[in-house]
Structures are given as structure tokens and as C-alpha cells.
Write a structure and sequence with these properties.
Helix content: 55-70%
Strand content: under 5%
Shape: elongated
Distance between the termini: 38 Å
Largest sheet: 2 strands, antiparallel
Strand order of the largest sheet: 1-2
Radius of gyration: 20 Å
Order of helices and strands: HHHHEEHHHHHHHHHH
Structural class: mainly alpha
Number of helices: 14
């Protein structure tokens, strides 16, 4: 069963009545969009109308009762795009960019609400990871969720909680995701057996480990997230976790290739060390200053 439900989305801020008179000024002058969102239930707010609202989250003073009414719709949009392997963009607005630029977690949420939001992000990512099976969808699927994982590292200090749940590999999907992620560190371009070349334009590069799907160019991973990953991610850790993945997936159709990756992790310690360090250095740089992956 999915962890995220409409009730889970609305529970982040708690039940909120519909807002009173709208005094918030829409960034592009589309005040009628705000009034339209205010009078309907949050589940019925149209994705197209979030374009204007997420711009306001980035650039405008927010009306608190309107924010509490619309924010669950923003969370639904975040979750739906995650599950569909899409970025959290609508028009020229990006939800992650709005959360960062508008300092929404600090400015609009109290501590209890922030903690519920972090839990929502963690549980949403775990729902997405549970979908992964068989490697049959190839690099597009893995690249999408890894890019969203990297976007989350910019926004919320919840990578430690997410990583701990994910890498405990309580479900086959989370084990598959651990293998996909590790494969991007074990292998260089053209070597990754999970992403074999199929056409001259698809060269088996594997997932990009340093891309985020957010249209954010001047921010880097939060210090708490980077510090956690630097402390835990090492060649020895990856070897240990790949052995666990092989155990979790024993007897499944994926077992043979996972066993092969686990062996390669044991044999490629020097490469793992270099690539882990390169990835961490890039996550600490703005997007336009990153080294090309591979």
C-alpha cells in the first residue's frame, strides 16, 4: 500500500478552512487565479493554476490562510510528478526552486509542520522506489528518481532519514534502487550492465549521479545532507550494501545481475573511491559549476 494518500498530504499542515478575502498580489498580476484556487477544495486546484501560485511562493508575500489551503495541492503535484518520472515544473515555475527561493520551510511552517513535511518527502520517495523492479525500464526510470533524490538534497535536511530507510532494503524495490544507484558509482561510461547500449545515441552511460531535476542553478546540497553522505558513503559501505541487496533479491529474476554487481563492487574499490569523491564534490557545487559526470 502506498504511504502517501490525500489525507497524508493535508496532514502536513493540518485541516485548513478555505481562506477569507484574497489580499495576496499574484506575481504576474493573475489575481483571478488566486481567487479561483481559494474557492475550490484543494484536491480540485488545477495543475495549471499552480504555475501562478508557485511563482508567488518564490517572489511574493504570501497570505497565510491561502498558503495553508493551497500547499496540499503543491504536495500532490510534487508526489504525482515523482511517481510519473517527471520534473516538478509547471510552465516556467519549478516547485523546488520556489521552496528554496521563498525560504518556505522556515518562513511559512512551524517546527512540527516542518517535521511532517520532511516525513512526507521521505515517504513519497520510498513509495517511488517501491515501483522499481526488473531493470526493464532502464536508465530513464532510474535517472528520473535519482534526479529527484538529488533535488530533495537541495531543499530539505531529510537525506539521512531517507537514506537510512532506503538502504535498509526492506522492500525489493528499495533494494533495486540501491543497486541502480551503486551501479552509477561502480561503472564508468559504457560499462554499466544495467544500461546496455541499444542505439548509437544510447551508449550505456548509466544514470547521472550529479543531476537534479529542479531548475535550480545557484544552490547546492544542504550542509546536513552532504555531511551525512560524506560520513556514510564509502567503497566498504557500498560493498556491504551490495551484498545485502544480493541477499534481499535472492531467488528473484534480478538475482543473477545483482550478484554480478556485488562482485564488481568488491573488485573495483579504487574506482569507487574516485567516483564517490567526484559525486560528492559536484553535489557541493551549483549546477553550472559542476564537472561533467563521466
Amino acid at each position: 500500500m502506498p504511504r502517501i494518500t490525500p489525507e497524508r498530504m493535508s496532514a502536513v499542515l493540518g485541516a485548513a478552512p478555505k481562506p477569507g478575502p484574497i489580499w495576496q498580489k499574484q506575481f504576474d498580476g493573475m489575481n483571478e487565479t488566486l481567487r479561483k484556487a481559494a474557492i475550490c477544495d484543494w484536491q480540485d486546484i488545477q495543475t495549471a493554476d499552480l504555475w501562478e501560485y508557485t511563482l508567488d511562493m518564490a517572489y511574493q508575500d504570501l497570505q497565510p490562510d491561502l498558503f495553508r489551503h493551497v500547499f496540499p495541492a503543491c504536495l500532490k503535484f510534487w508526489y504525482d510528478t515523482l511517481m510519473a518520472n517527471q520534473s516538478a515544473e509547471v510552465g516556467d515555475s519549478d516547485l523546488h526552486r520556489s521552496l528554496i527561493r521563498g525560504n518556505i520551510l522556515a518562513r511559512m511552517l512551524n517546527e512540527a509542520e516542518r517535521q511532517r513535511l520532511l516525513g512526507f518527502f521521505v515517504e513519497g520517495m520510498l513509495d517511488r522506489m517501491d515501483l522499481e523492479r526488473g531493470f526493464e525500464r532502464g536508465a530513464g526510470s532510474a535517472s528520473a528518481w535519482i534526479s529527484r533524490f538529488n533535488s530533495l538534497g537541495l531543499v530539505a535536511p531529510d537525506i539521512p532519514a531517507l537514506w537510512t530507510n532506503w538502504w535498509s532494503m526492506k522492500t525489493p524495490g528499495s533494494a533495486i534502487c540501491a543497486v541502480q544507484y551503486a551501479s552509477g558509482l561502480i561503472y564508468c561510461r559504457g560499462e554499466n550492465p544495467l544500461y546496455p547500449a541499444r542505439t548509437p545515441m544510447e551508449d550505456g552511460a548509466g544514470p547521472s549521479m550529479t543531476e537534479w531535476d529542479a531548475q535550480v542553478f545557484d544552490s547546492v546540497w544542504l550542509d546536513a545532507n552532504l555531511a551525512f553522505l560524506r560520513a556514510i558513503l564509502s567503497p566498504a559501505y557500498l560493498v556491504e550494501r551490495m551484498a545485502l541487496a544480493a541477499t534481499v533479491l535472492a531467488g528473484t529474476p534480478e538475482a543473477r545481475i545483482v550478484e554480478s554487481l556485488a562482485q564488481d563492487a568488491r573488485d573495483r574499490g579504487d574506482i569507487l573511491h574516485i567516483r564517490v569523491e567526484d559525486m560528492l564534490e559536484n553535489l557541493a557545487r551549483p549546477k553550472l559549476e559542476q564537472d561533467p559526470w563521466d
